[in-house]
Write a structure and sequence with these properties.
This protein is α/β, with parallel strands linked by helices. The protein contains six helices and seven strands. Strand 3 and strand 4 form a beta hairpin. The chain binds guanosine-5'-triphosphate (GTP) and magnesium ion. Guanosine-5'-triphosphate binds next to helix 2.
């Protein structure tokens, strides 16, 4: 059981259409990013034990603005749900907007303490994921790789994927973690919460 404050104290702060509209750049933030439909919002709900916190959807491209959540009442710790990428059907304009928003956020945000990149365990390390991993490496920003939807693979296959990911990340010098998760079975959720607490307090 996760017995941490994430569970009781997480609140939705707001939804922001652009980098410029975000609240003050203060405290510590961990940003969640990943391809559309990889389960960012679902994992967010799992770690806060709140099914209604972040909107999830069967329609890819659902989260198009930056959603901000505060995870502990007495500390300025926030989780940022960034819009998903890699969804072919969004318009070119929308994709360009996404690029600008993410670029601004990643390059300018001083409170950003770590990036969590969520991937579908069945389709990990796509080009956009690799771009973000390389970006973390260049900035020396701690990185958490989540191999989500682990329930879609056998235990054996899931641990094989995890080993493969660990091998892939061994090349990096920036601090990194690989956790296989499932928003459905809550596999890896405790480990993720522990990792995030450590990163927030670094
Ligand atoms: N089986 C399984 N399904 C999952 C898991 N996580 C998410 N899903 C499903 O995947 C779909 C997309 O989940 P979301 O959490 O909305 O994904 P997202 O990454 O936030 O998507 P966008 O906001 O569109 O970028 C939903 O139908 C979820 O129920 C998981 O761990 N296992
Ligand atoms: Mg979402």
């Amino acid at each position: 059981m996760v017995s941490h404050n994430f569970l009781q104290n997480s609140v939705f702060i707001g939804s922001y259409p652009s980098y410029e509209s975000l609240p003050d750049d203060s405290g510590s933030e961990i940003a969640f990013c990943g391809r559309s439909n990889c389960g960012k919002s679902s994992v967010l709900n799992a770690i806060t034990n709140n099914k209604k916190l972040a909107k999830t959807s069967k329609t890819p491209g659902r989260t198009q603005s930056i959603n901000v959540f505060k995870v502990e009442k007495d500390k300025n710790h926030k989780i940022i749900d960034l819009p998903g990428y890699g969804y072919a059907k969004v318009s070119k304009t929308m994709r360009a907007d996404w690029g600008i928003t993410i670029d601004n956020y990643l390059n300018k945000r001083k409170s950003l303490k770590a990036l969590a990149i969520i991937m579908d365990i069945r389709h990990p390390f796509k080009d956009d994921d690799l771009t973000l991993i390389n970006w973390c490496e260049a900035k020396n920003l701690p990185l958490v790789i989540l191999l989500n939807k682990s329930d879609k693979l056998s235990k054996n296959k899931a641990s094989q994927e995890q080993l493969r990911a660990l091998k892939e990340l061994k090349k990096l010098s920036t601090k990194n973690f690989v956790i296989s998760t499932s928003a459905t079975t809550k596999d890896g959720v405790n480990e993720l919460v522990e990792t995030m607490i450590n990163l927030f307090n670094m």
